[in-house]
Amino acid sequence: MSGYYLCRTECAVRPFYIESIGRNIYSLEELCYYFSHYVYLIDESVVNVTLCRWIGTELGLVKLQNRLLRALERETYTEFLSPIFQECGYLDKQEFRLFQEQFTEILTEPEEVRRKMKADYLVEFGRYVIALREYEKITQQQKNGKMGMQFYAAVLENMAAAMHICLSLKKRRTACGILTK
Fold first, then answer.
1. Nearest Cα residue to 132 out of 171, 173, 170, 172
2. What values do phi and psi take at 23, rounded to 5?
3. Interior/surface letters 84-104, b for 16+ CB within 10 angstroms, e for the rest
4. Chain segment 93-108, per-residue pLDDT in tens
5. Are 68 and 148 in contact (CB under 8 A)?
6. 3-state secondary structure 37-49
7. CA–CA separation, 173 vs 181, rounded Å?
8. H/E element holding 96?
9. Is 34 helix (H, G, I), strand (E, B) or coil?
10. Are 36 and 96 in contact (CB under 8 A)?
11. What is the mean pLDDT of residues 50-66?
């Protein structure tokens, strides 16, 4: 999966905004790139009715929109993602099978692990405030958590690093409003 991907589908005039990474998506291929490279960021903030409507109205893929809406009702991410990849042929059969295996494996991981990985990805994107919220949710669950102390120590370490960066940015400009509340 290296090189260039030509968009086989139409590009949208109005993009779909993915808040967690602060990016606009203009095509089905860009959406597939997001799904395949940022698996831990796939959640209800992206996989939702708004995305389905955007695919139908902005990309003109009404049949796909209807198929995705039915998949949403059944609440299965795998069933939701599959038609999107198939529509534009972003992954070949073997690549898609590997993606499905990886995604299925992720869904079996404990919630705390998935949240930590999501927060780590968010830090990479410079989305420190959102990442700090995810780390905070993990630390709040620590009492009930099934993870060992090393895991929670790693969470706190990453949280401290994100907070340090956020505070450093705040000194230069007020970029992280959550810390002043």
1. 170
2. -130, 150
3. bbebbebbeeeebeebeeebe
4. 898 889 888 888 888 8
5. no
6. HCHHHCCCCCCCH
7. 16
8. helix 93-108
9. helix
10. no
11. 93
Within 13 Å and on the Cβ side, how many CA atoms surround 14? 9
Q: Which pair of tokens denotes residue 109?
A: 């991981």
Side-chain-side CA neighbours of 152 within 13 Å: the count stands at 14
Determine contact, residues 68/48, Cβ cutoff 8 Å: no
Query: How far is Cα 164 from Cα 90, in angstroms, rounded to an integer?
Result: 38
Question: Do 112 and 141 contact (CB within 8 A), yes or no?
Answer: yes
* Residue 167, phi-psi category: left (phi > 0), alpha (psi -120 to 50), beta (remainder): alpha
Instruction: At 88, list the tokens.
Output: 């534009």
Question: What's the whole-model pTM score?
Answer: 0.75
Size (the chain), residues: 181
Q: Of 2, 4, 7, 26, which Cα lies nearest the Cα of 88?
A: 7
Torsion sign (Cα): 9, 13, 14, 18: positive
